[in-house]
């Protein structure tokens, strides 16, 4: 029973990733191209022309729909077409602030809601109803019921402890500031990678931005090193361990590489979703190492952006680069020794 459930979930996650990939590629490539021509500013990388701003907006649109697509097609794999729209709506909810605490849970929350939607809709499809009601089920009853019940469950039950945890994390990080640099760097690095743009990552961002406002830039340096490590690590892994990835994954590796160069952590999400038990620990450890090395060597990032693209506005350029490189190689090594090779027919 457990094996069957796990296989169903793996199939659902792979389906979600395969339908999400074009959105990731479009978003990542357009954002990378537009920001690569920009200049560092107080708000991060600022684009150089209206055309590049338009290209950036298109890329942001691709990233905005990425998580709803993931949730939608996870649910679709489990329960078919009636689950698609409700899960996309709930995936959008997960990826945007909602509720009194304005909590967002990112791709992890979207995956959870995709699975819950899939199994809830699958159960709804077993109901014994009249033929008239059955025609209304997929277009009226199931979508409304699913979004209402699971949406309220998410807002009033699931998001509440997450919001409380984020508040606690900010307070804990505040107590660490000025204490052990290595501990703070490890925590910031790990938080950056654990949900790749989700609430834990955003908590680290908020903490480092608050310190930047007070003229303290080293924690931001650790954070901006760490944001680049997950996509760079999975990209390099696809380059050197080709037998561990499908052709689709290897093609995505190049896109993830460019996203890593400009500090877009989300480039690693498709790889983490497909093999969470191996990829996620690897990138968390690598990012933690990179963050700690940045803090120990007092690397300071002067803008709220990451990746090698901001190197001109970094104090401690050599260690910024070395910390990013070492953290990336740590993650690549862990993936190399833990991720098995695929069957020959899957690699082609």
Automatic annotation (TrEMBL):
One Pfam entry name: PTS_EIIC
GO biological process: phosphoenolpyruvate-dependent sugar phosphotransferase system
Entry superkingdom: Bacteria
Compartments where found: Cell inner membrane
Regions crossing the membrane: 12-35, 55-76, 105-124, 136-156, 176-194, 252-273, 279-297, 318-338
Molecular function terms, GO-annotated: carbohydrate:proton symporter activity; protein-N(PI)-phosphohistidine-sugar phosphotransferase activity; protein-phosphocysteine-sugar phosphotransferase activity
GO-annotated cellular components: plasma membrane
Domain named PTS EIIC type-2: residues: 9-348
Bilayer topology annotation: Multi-pass membrane protein
PROSITE patterns reported for this sequence: PTS_EIIC_TYPE_2
Record keywords, A-Z: Cell membrane, Membrane, Phosphotransferase system, Sugar transport, Transmembrane, Transmembrane helix, Transport
Coiled coil ranges: none
First and last residue of the signal peptide: none
PANTHER family: FRUCTOSE-LIKE PERMEASE, FRUCTOSE-LIKE PTS SYSTEM EIIBC COMPONENT-RELATED
Family matches, as NCBIfam families: PTS_IIC_fructo (TIGR01427)
Name of the protein described by the UniProt record: PTS fructose transporter subunit IIA
Classification lineage: Bacteria, Bacillati, Bacillota, Bacilli, Lactobacillales
